[in-house]
Design the sequence.
């Protein structure tokens, strides 16, 4: 866990990326243009990054590859809920519900 | 003689108000239209903000630190995405680069919107940059770029932008204060992963985007042993490249038919 003054420094570092990216062209002047190839490649950045954060949490257990774990089951339920329903709360209730039943109810 | 209304707030606190004049009218008109357009979507921000608030608290941030993060960062994806790294005590540069990648889409928005802020002061541009969230771009960009009245444009941008900001801070406060209600051993940190998944699912309905996500995710899992924790970044880079290649490839196939 990052803590104390170092955590605040970290928060400002994360915040600086907000200004750097959102402010880039708005602050830098409208003359500049993004190369089209780069612009197309950048469209894939959020999906790749989100997945690179999600999959390790679902597939690893204490740093080791272990697909048979309660978080993966809960994750599949979350994906189904997000695809099937437009209710923004459902994936959270379904995912947390399944994880809690498996971990605390069944002791997995 | 026109009556000058008294100002009940100091100018330094709210520097955007102008005296009663045609440009003030067009600012107000822009603000009203912008708020009408944004109201439904801004309410939709509330669940997100609440979940992010709970996620920050269950990662181990104090209430003050969580609210500070909401104010300083003001970007849900970057906040949720960096929480697992903060929890793991990852090095600062890795947290910075991950946040940067998660925010990269805003470079595209910023480039597209830049002409709408032509001639605005630097401080207004800085504020505009800080406030530029996804929903604002999706709803407002088109009309913003078609208007040639700078005062209307400023109203049409800054009013809904501040509405989104208020909703985000309000929902965050509810989540941060409400998080204490849940017992510690309820695995609430999994809310972060759920929130990231809910963002990812609508993106991957497109084939090339799905390829980018699969390669990025599996890359990060397989490369987890790489020193300096470069695995996450390498996975993301592989995912972007894979998505780009998949798009090119499907285009070529379409042309060949």
Sequence:
């Amino acid at each position: 866990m990052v803590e104390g003054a170092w955590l605040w420094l970290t928060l400002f570092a994360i915040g600086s990326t907000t200004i750097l990216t959102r402010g880039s062209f708005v602050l830098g002047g409208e003359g500049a243009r993004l190369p089209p190839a780069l612009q197309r490649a950048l469209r894939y950045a959020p999906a790749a990054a989100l997945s690179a954060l999600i999959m390790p949490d679902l597939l690893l257990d204490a740093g080791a590859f272990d697909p048979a774990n309660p978080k993966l089951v809960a994750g599949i339920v979350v994906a189904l809920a997000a695809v099937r329903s437009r209710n923004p709360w459902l994936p959270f209730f379904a995912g947390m519900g399944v994880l809690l039943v498996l971990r605390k109810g069944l002791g997995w | 003689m026109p009556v000058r209304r008294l100002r009940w707030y100091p100018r330094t606190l709210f520097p955007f108000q102008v005296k009663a004049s045609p440009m003030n009218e067009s600012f107000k008109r822009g603000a009203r239209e912008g708020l009408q357009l944004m109201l439904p979507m801004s309410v939709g921000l509330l669940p997100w903000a609440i979940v992010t608030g709970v996620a920050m608290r269950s990662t181990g941030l104090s209430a003050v630190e969580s609210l500070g993060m909401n104010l300083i960062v003001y970007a849900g994806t970057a906040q949720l995405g960096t929480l697992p790294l903060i929890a793991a005590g990852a090095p600062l540069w890795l947290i910075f680069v991950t946040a940067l990648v998660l925010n990269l889409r805003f470079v595209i928005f910023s480039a597209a919107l830049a002409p709408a802020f032509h001639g605005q002061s630097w401080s207004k541009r800085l504020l505009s940059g800080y406030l530029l969230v996804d929903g604002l771009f999706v709803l407002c960009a088109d009309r913003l770029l078609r208007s040639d009245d700078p005062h209307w444009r400023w109203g049409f941008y800054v009013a809904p932008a501040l509405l989104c900001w208020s909703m985000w801070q309000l929902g965050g406060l509810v989540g941060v204060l409400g998080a204490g209600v849940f017992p510690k051993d309820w695995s609430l940190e999994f809310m972060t992963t759920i929130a990231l998944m809910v963002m990812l699912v609508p993106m991957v309905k497109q084939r090339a985007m799905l390829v980018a996500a699969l390669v990025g995710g599996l890359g990060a899992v397989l490369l987890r042993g790489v020193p300096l924790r470069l695995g996450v970044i390498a996975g993301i880079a592989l995912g972007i490249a894979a998505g780009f290649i998949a798009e090119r490839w499907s285009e070529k196939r379409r042309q060949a038919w």
